[in-house]
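Quick one, tokens below:
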């Protein structure tokens, strides 16, 4: 059984890395564009495999809720929640008319837009007894994960860890958060893409 799971883990990571190499585009400013399978068009096959792998990693964590931030974290969160059988809560980047009542809020600087968003989540959807897994598509400087962690802490809930599809390991977010004791699981970690060539960390 364990060997079988290990094979699955290796296959998912390899498939994701191959997809990144084939379809990813390195843009100026250390941005990796993966619009063809994750950020605009979504490849359901690789998405669901990523979800299954995140669920495998957090199977014993007692997670009962997944928290992400709109928009591009939602797909990965849905895939993971499908296997973990939990609801998903997604923080919004602006207060729309369907967010009523009291909210938890945190300031997050957007890596791709360079703007600062006040992310909010209704107090109805994060409770003290929740055990929360934070999910996102990318981890770069860690601002999104820190902001989402702040929302969980404000609710008095427990963070079981975070899972991201792609970590850019040459940026500081992953190292900083792990040094603070947070469990971070990244399906693919890019160690270098400075010359347009993508180099993955051997995990
Ligand atoms: P952080 O907050 O860790 O600096 O950046 C993570 C957030 O910025 C993610 O929610 C993701 O949407 C976005 N992001 C950061 N780096 C990249 C990237 O290289 N490509 C894409 N598509 N999004 C990124």
């Amino acid at each position: 059984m364990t060997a079988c799971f290990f094979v699955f883990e290796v296959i998912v990571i390899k498939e994701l890395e191959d997809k990144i190499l084939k379809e990813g585009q390195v843009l100026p400013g250390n941005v990796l564009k993966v619009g063809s399978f994750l950020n605009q068009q979504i490849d359901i096959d690789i998405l669901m495999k990523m979800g299954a792998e995140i669920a495998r990693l957090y199977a014993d964590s007692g997670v009962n809720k997944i928290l992400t931030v709109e928009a591009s974290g939602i797909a990965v969160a849905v895939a993971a929640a499908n296997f973990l059988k939990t609801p998903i809560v997604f923080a919004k980047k602006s207060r729309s008319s369907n967010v009523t009542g009291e909210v938890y809020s945190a300031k997050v600087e957007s890596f791709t837009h360079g703007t600062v968003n006040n992310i909010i989540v209704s107090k109805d959807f994060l409770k003290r007894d929740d055990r929360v897994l934070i999910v996102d598509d990318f981890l770069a400087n860690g601002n999104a994960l820190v902001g989402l962690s702040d929302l969980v802490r404000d609710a008095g809930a427990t963070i079981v860890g975070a899972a991201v599809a792609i970590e850019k390991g040459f940026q500081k977010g992953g190292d900083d958060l792990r040094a603070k004791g947070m469990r971070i699981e990244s399906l693919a970690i890019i160690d270098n893409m400075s010359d347009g060539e993508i180099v993955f960390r051997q995990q």
